[in-house]
From TrEMBL:
The lineage of its organism: Bacteria, Pseudomonadati, Bacteroidota, Flavobacteriia, Flavobacteriales. This is 50S ribosomal protein L29.
Length: 74
């Protein structure tokens, strides 16, 4: 259950005014947490774990969207 606590702490982190390298680190950490939680979910099939993974995925997508930047207009 240490992994779940780590994921919950990750969610509570401040995500404002981050540098590019901070965004990359957050994205990688989120991916690692999601994959580790998925291994637990495969065994236990607990919906709470799935909900945590979904919330982490939303955070990860927001960070990656900001990393990619705005698309160039034609």
């Amino acid at each position: 259950m240490d992994l779940i606590n780590k994921a919950l702490e990750f969610e509570k982190r401040k995500m404002k005014s981050l540098s590019t390298s901070d965004r990359v680190k957050i994205s990688r950490e989120a991916k690692a947490l999601i994959l580790d939680l998925n291994q637990i979910y495969k065994v236990k099939k607990d919906e709470k774990i799935m909900d945590i993974m979904k919330r982490l995925t939303v955070i990860k997508r927001k960070v990656e969207k900001r990393l990619r930047g705005l698309p160039l207009s034609a």
